From TrEMBL:
GO molecular function, a single term: O-acyltransferase activity
Maltose/galactoside acetyltransferase domain ranges (all copies): 1-52
Xref: Pfam families: Hexapep (PF00132), Mac (PF12464)
UniProtKB keywords: Acyltransferase, Nodulation, Repeat, Transferase
Role this protein plays: Acetyltransferase implicated in the O-acetylation of Nod factors.
Protein family per UniProt: Belongs to the transferase hexapeptide repeat family.
Gene3D superfamilies per UniProt: Hexapeptide repeat proteins (2.160.10.10)
GO cellular component annotations of the record: cytosol
Name of protein: Nodulation protein L
The keyword Glycoprotein belongs to this UniProt entry's keyword annotation: no
Length: 175
C-alpha cells in the first residue's frame, strides 16, 4: 500500500492500523476546547511529521495519520479530510480552508480489478505558502507548487505550478 501498489483494504494489518487511527481521531476530535499546544502534541504523537505551530482544527478525519507530513505553520480549518493511504505532504505556511478534502486513495480504472477489491494510492504533495480555499478537493497524485492559490470549491485534477491561481471544476488557471 505505502509503495502505491495494489492492496486489499480488508487486510488484517490495514484494518488494525485503521482501528488505531479511529481511536486517535476520537481523542483528537474531542479536544476542540483544549489548547493548540495540547492538540499539537497529539498530532506529533500520531503523524509522520509535524512542524512547529502546525494547527488542525477539529473535527478532522484521515485514514491512517502516519502518512501525513505537515510543515511549520500549516493551518487546516474545521472539517478537513485527508485520505492518506500513501504520503500526503503539506509544506510550511500552507493555509487550508474548511471542508477541504485531500485524496491520496485511488481506485483501479479497470472494472475487473475493482471487482477483485483492490485499491491503490498516489502521493499528494502541496508546497509551501499555498492557500487552498474552503471545500476544494485535491485528487490523487496531484502536486501543488509553492505559493499557489486554489479557489474555494475547486476540484484539482492535475498538478498546479508554483505561483499559479486555479479555480473551478476541473480547476484551471485564472486569467
Amino acid at each position: 500500500m505505502l509503495a502505491g501498489a495494489l492492496y486489499r483494504p480488508g487486510d488484517a494489518e490495514i484494518q488494525a492500523d485503521q482501528a488505531a487511527n479511529k481511536a486517535w481521531l476520537a481523542r483528537y476530535n474531542g479536544m476542540l476546547d483544549r489548547s493548540m499546544a495540547d492538540r499539537h502534541a497529539l498530532l506529533v504523537e500520531h503523524f509522520g511529521a509535524v512542524g512547529e505551530s502546525a494547527v488542525i482544527r477539529p473535527p478532522f478525519f484521515c485514514d491512517f495519520g502516519y502518512n501525513i507530513a505537515l510543515g511549520a505553520g500549516v493551518f487546516l480549518n474545521f472539517n478537513c479530510v485527508i485520505l492518506d493511504v500513501v504520503a500526503v505532504t503539506i509544506g510550511d505556511g500552507t493555509q487550508i480552508g474548511p471542508g477541504v478534502q485531500i485524496y491520496a486513495a485511488d481506485h483501479p480504472r479497470d472494472g475487473e480489478t475493482r471487482r477483485a477489491g483492490l485499491e491503490f494510492g498516489r502521493p499528494v504533495n502541496i508546497g509551501k505558502n499555498v492557500w487552498i480555499g474552503g471545500a476544494a478537493v485535491i485528487l490523487p497524485g496531484v502536486t501543488v507548487g509553492d505559493d499557489a492559490v486554489i479557489g474555494a470549491g475547486s476540484i484539482v485534477t492535475r498538478d498546479v505550478p508554483a505561483g499559479a491561481t486555479v479555480m473551478g471544476n476541473p480547476a484551471r488557471a485564472s486569467r
